[in-house]
Amino acid sequence: MIDLRRLRTDDAYRRGIERKRVDANVIDEVLALDADAREKRQAVEDLRSQQKAISKEIGGAAPDQRDAKKAEASELKDRLKGVEDELTTLEDRVRAIAVTIPNPADDDVPDGGEDDGVVLRTVGETPAAPALDHAAFAETLGFVETEHAVEASGSRFASLMGRAVLLELALVRWVTDRLVAAGFTPVVPPVMVREATMEEAGFFPTDRSQVYEVDGGELFLVGTSEVPLSTLHRGERLDASTLPRRYAGISTCFRREAGTYGKDTTGIFRVHQFDKVEMFSFAEPTQSDAEHEQLVAIEEEIISGLGLPYRVVNIASGDLGAAAAKKYDLEVWLPSEGRYRELTSCSNYRDYSARRLGTRVKGDGGTELVHTLNGTACAVGRTLVFLFEHYQENGAFIVPDVLRDLAGFDRVDPK
RNA sequence: GGAGGGAUGACCGAGAGGCCGAAGGUGCUCGCCUGCUAAGCGAGUAGGGGGCUAAUACCUCCUCGAGGGUUCAAAUCCCUCUCCCUCCGCCA
Q1: Strand B close residues, chain A 72-101, CB < 7 angstroms
Q2: Which strand B nucleotides have any atom less than 7 A from protein CB atoms?
Q3: Is residue A270 annotated as part of the catalytic site, yes or no?
Q4: Looking at the structure, do residues A205 and A69 belong to the same domain, yes or no?
Q5: Which terminus of chain A is less hemmed in, N or C, by CB atoms within 10 Å?
């Protein structure tokens, strides 16, 4: 949720929102409604104040004066009721619009949409396409089963099989160990959450269409463990000296992938269900930029450690999503397609989700909302896709050095 | 699934229609005292929104798990929900 007060007083804040392609009329409308609501609130509070004052007098009043006072209080109450209803209506309208307004983009976020991200750096050599693409290669090694998974569950479902499962476990373990060393607390959180939690985490109402409902709409399957992790300090005031607080969520993720029909239909590049290790950080506002860089650095170490060539992209304002003020994508070279594809990303939400979560920092200058940040440490399925293309050798899969001890084998030959 | 009990400030815990944003204690902060430490003594100590401000101050509203209701007046009475505990059943 945005900061309405700042929206009306801070031009830069407003510009950051407009750069997310929000209609200026929507902003004007919400500001106008908010002005009305504040005025109405003043009227309500004045009346309520009077009404309370008289009510208090009744307790200590002489018996013969009570009825007169009661009548007076009753009359004020009736007047109050009408104005209160008007206020509630206004507040509901303000809120309905406000929750749809995205977090403003930072100044150093480039303008534009999907194709306008700015490449900040490119690391590693880009090899030619391998003999087999990831999907075909995985099949020859018995790593992925799609036929029966699709029959059982539908398109975009697959089973990971055999040694690929051991690779997944090795990957998760390797990444988690690195995060623990960097001060992250590992967490296996709930993957089903309530609607209110989705709202507080900033996913509803904007991304509702991407989320699965279960239990008759009572619960929702998370698309990322960021959702439950964000609630870890819901309603709390954190001492500034304890920040940043870093958590590594390990969970299965569920995404409907609405609107992606026909895209990435081979293999497990884009599926409805995958496992992921996610970084989540609560940071002091003045430190959140540094924390953002820190999270990207960790992502780069992981990708470099796996020997994958990548580039870092500063995502353009129109492609940021509602909650992010700034986002880096790490795109890895996918040889079979001859282009870079997104493997991980890393966002600074600033106070956008903290406002609804009620998570604050208590420091020398009083309390203020924390900043929250998140980043992908390892999206397992998609990481395997890249490994399958970069680690082919004469039909065999060569296990990356860093995973060998954890996997328990160095190579996998075709069946 | 059935039957009960409960949720109060950083924490423990009283309060059972008005004098309650809330006793008392612990903790914390400041001061006094004090070879040092401990103890003792005194004072202070909830959060959030809105208004006004350069910012304080100040005014005001809201908050006793959440949301509604009754009443002139609700921590206190009623309803719904969430969570915790005990007992029974069931499953592992």
Answers
A1: 73-74, 77
A2: 18-19, 47-51, 60-62, 72-73
A3: yes
A4: no
A5: C
Task: Tell me how many domains chain A contains.
Answer: 2
Q: Which domain holds residue A130?
A: 114-412
Q: Is the CB of A136 under 7 A from strand B?
A: no
Examine residue A2 and state whether it is found in any structural domain, yes or no: no
Nucleotide nearest to A52 (CA to C1'): B73
Asked whether the whole model's pTM tops 0.90, one would answer yes
Quick one: pLDDT at residue A54? Answer: 87
Closest nt to residue A45, judged CA to C1': B61
10-residue stretch averages of pLDDT, chain A, 415 residues long: 91 92 92 92 90 83 78 86 88 89 94 94 93 94 94 93 96 97 94 89 86 88 94 86 91 92 89 96 92 97 97 96 94 96 96 89 80 96 96 95 96 89
Tokens of A300: 């780069």
Cβ(A326)–Cβ(A106) below 8 Å: yes
Q: Is the CB of A357 under 7 A from strand B?
A: no
Active site residue A345: yes
Looking up tokens 């020859």, which residue turns up? A140
**Assigned domain for A181 exists:** yes
Note the pLDDT of residue A275.
Answer: 96
What pLDDT sits at residue A81? 87
> Which residue's structure tokens are 């009359």?
A75
Q: Supply the ipTM of this predicted assembly.
A: 0.83
